[in-house]
């Protein structure tokens, strides 16, 4: 890459070197394209490089939450646990980068700050933080759906004299929490993973909880000797089953459990005895394992009550159990699984602060002040989530046709996109698993592989047929958004009390809109293929 003066030119610029960017580089390079990847971190990994917090792991079995495109890679790599922890996934992505010799085409420590499209040249010019520019007809934004950590704005945060950490940019190296008084703010997927591990290490843990989580107890285990080899021998069947499965993971995962719930009898018509028996027999699963919770808010509220009873069977202190019972609808946030979450609250060194009753007033130099008093702390860990789906692209000044700003468009109109792959007014820009894609409610890697392969085929088609540009048509985009919205219209996902990264409700001021596509990956793939086969229907090719 050159600084100022001459501009280096490529066929495709990929931004980001996580799961998506690495596969985009490999696949597009295999198609004979000159590809350059720009990555702000010092190495590969994306999500699995920065979320190094204790307890971080995936919640889909690793033999499915991994690349399927290379038989060599899936045979050579050794997973040690059913659902791998962060260090192993990070190591896997490094292995892939080396095995496919990807690093030679990646510029690390290179943050993209702006990119603008020239109509005349049919080309994107991409500017990085150090003032360098590169250009290419096509840009693939592999910038991540959960890559911009969200800091809460609590008065006094910068006055804290202890250590402040965000789980989404956890420092490299050991963070020693032993003998420390630690506070964790946030009880989403991250908090639920982090809290049991921190409790075992810290002198005292105080959990500041605004919305209690719904979380399914889960057993993650190391593979028995020979077990992984047997699975590897069945990879053709495993991958085939995944491909046909709506969530891109056919083995047991929180997503597959949720899908199975849809086929269960309704809670509304269950007798009092049946409800009690469900909780007595199956605990938390029994409270939630009913078919009408996604569509009927009253049934959902009844399930919340049963859930509270199930929690009370695990948590010794009744007041703590009550505080851990959610009041928002089940299923309107991403499903969570845990290992010993509720048991953690029976420990002598753990205190729960229910912010619904006792809100945070400020962060002080020596702790967190709530309405009821001061909690003295040495370390505060913010597990407060991400500006999801649009956050990463909105932190780049993306200028499309006529200088239009993507950030302004998405802020004013909402996160509109055609297939989650393209935005009208931004020709030749592909977004991997953007808003309106299945990624929010599916195995991301499976969903992403489809996107990368579709983009590869699209660029090849354009070149073979002498087209220089492809651009989503506004009416096709609106139709796609309408279809995605219609899919969830009858569900609790759009209930006013649902606030999550799925609908932008977790970011103050963000326009609310459900940002997923819930018909499943096979149906999404069918639609994408149909559109491509029709000469890219809904796109303007020029
Ligand atoms: P990322 O991994 O986020 O990578 C994006 C890359 O782009 C980053 O390296 C970033 O530095 C770079 N980048 C962004 N902006 C710029 C810029 N302006 N300039 C240069 N570089 C830039 N999904 C699942 O399906 N199953 C799971 O079990 C699962 N577990 C998760 C656990 C955690 C803790 C989190 C946060 C997410 C999890 N996800 C899971 C979602 C996860 O984000 C995806 O599965 C996947 O890792 C995303 O890969 P990606 O390459 O698209 O994005
Ligand atoms: O973020 P979240 P996350 N004061 O937004 C609270 C993936 N992931 O990092 O709900 C007090 O879910 C907030 O409270 P509320 C997965 O896709 C996967 O946990 O807004 N609290 C909430 O409790 C997941 O969905 C895994 O009331 C504040 C929490 O912080 C996504 O990443 C593991 C607050 C944020 O929860 C994000 O998960 C980890 C404030 N000012 C992550 N602001 C797997 O296991 C926010 N909160 C696969």
Automatic annotation (TrEMBL):
Its cofactor is FAD. Transmembrane segments: none annotated. One of its GO terms (molecular function) is oxidoreductase activity, acting on paired donors, with incorporation or reduction of molecular oxygen, NAD(P)H as one donor, and incorporation of one atom of oxygen. Keywords: FAD, Flavoprotein, Monooxygenase, NADP, Oxidoreductase. InterPro entries: FAD-binding_Monooxygenases, FAD/NAD-bd_sf, FAD/NAD-binding_dom. SUPFAM superfamilies: FAD/NAD(P)-binding domain. Residues 10-213 form the FAD/NAD(P)-binding domain. Gene3D superfamilies: FAD/NAD(P)-binding domain. Pfam families: Pyr_redox_2. PANTHER family: L-ORNITHINE N(5)-MONOOXYGENASE-RELATED. Belongs to the FAD-binding monooxygenase family. This is Putative (Cyclohexanone) monooxygenase. It comes from Mycolicibacterium poriferae.
């Amino acid at each position: 890459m050159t600084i100022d003066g001459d501009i280096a030119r490529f066929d495709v610029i990929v931004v980001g070197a996580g799961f998506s960017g690495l596969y985009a580089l490999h696949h597009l390079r295999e198609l004979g394209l000159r590809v350059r990847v720009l990555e702000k971190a010092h190495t590969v990994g994306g999500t699995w490089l920065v979320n190094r917090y204790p307890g971080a792991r995936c919640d889909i079995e690793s033999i499915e939450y991994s690349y399927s495109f290379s038989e060599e890679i899936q045979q050579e790599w050794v997973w040690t646990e059913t659902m791998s922890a962060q260090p192993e996934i990070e190591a896997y992505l490094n292995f892939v980068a080396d095995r496919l010799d990807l690093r030679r085409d990646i510029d690390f420590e290179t943050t993209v700050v702006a990119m603008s499209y020239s109509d005349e040249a049919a080309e994107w010019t991409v500017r990085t933080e150090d003032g360098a520019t590169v250009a290419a007809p096509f840009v693939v934004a592999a910038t991540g759906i959960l890559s911009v950590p969200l800091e809460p704005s609590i008065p006094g945060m910068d006055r804290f004299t202890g250590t402040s950490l965000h789980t989404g940019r956890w420092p490299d190296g050991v963070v020693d929490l032993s003998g420390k008084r630690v506070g964790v703010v946030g009880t989403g997927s991250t908090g639920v993973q982090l809290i049991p591990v921190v409790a075992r290490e810290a002198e005292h843990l105080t959990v500041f909880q605004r919305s209690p989580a719904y979380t399914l107890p889960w057993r993650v285990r190391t593979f028995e000797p020979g077990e992984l080899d047997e699975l590897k021998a069945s990879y053709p069947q495993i991958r085939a089953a995944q491909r046909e499965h709506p969530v891109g993971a056919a083995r047991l995962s929180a997503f597959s459990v949720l899908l199975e719930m849809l086929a269960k009898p309704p809670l509304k018509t269950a007798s009092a005895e049946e409800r009690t028996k469900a909780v007595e027999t199956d605990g938390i699963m029994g409270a939630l394992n009913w078919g009408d919770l996604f569509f009927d808010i009253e049934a959902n509220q009844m399930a919340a009550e049963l859930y509270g009873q199930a929690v009370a069977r695990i948590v010794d202190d009744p007041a703590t159990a009550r505080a851990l019972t959610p009041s928002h609808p089940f299923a309107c946030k991403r499903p969570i699984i845990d290992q010993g979450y509720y048991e953690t609250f029976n420990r002598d060194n753990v205190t729960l602060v229910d912010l619904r009753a006792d809100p945070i007033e400020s962060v002080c130099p020596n702790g967190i002040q709530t309405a009821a008093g001061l909690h003295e702390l040495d370390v505060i860990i913010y597990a407060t989530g991400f500006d999801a789906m649009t956050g990463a692209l909105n932190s780049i000044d993306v200028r499309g046709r006529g200088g239009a700003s993507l950030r302004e468009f998405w802020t004013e109109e909402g996160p509109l996109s055609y297939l989650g792959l393209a935005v009208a007014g931004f020709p030749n820009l592909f977004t991997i698993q953007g808003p309106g894609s299945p990624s929010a409610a599916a195995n991301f890697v499976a969903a992403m592989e489809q996107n990368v392969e579709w983009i590869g085929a699209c660029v090849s088609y354009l070149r073979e047929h002498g087209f220089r540009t492809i651009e989503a048509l506004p009416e096709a985009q609106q139709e796609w958004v309408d279809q995605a919205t219609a899919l969830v219209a009858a569900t609790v996902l759009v209930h006013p009390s649902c606030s999550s990264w799925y609908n932008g409700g977790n970011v103050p001021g963000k326009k609310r809109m459900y940002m997923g596509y819930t018909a499943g990956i096979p149906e999404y793939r069918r639609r994408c293929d149909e559109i491509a086969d029709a000469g890219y229907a809904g796109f303007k090719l020029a």
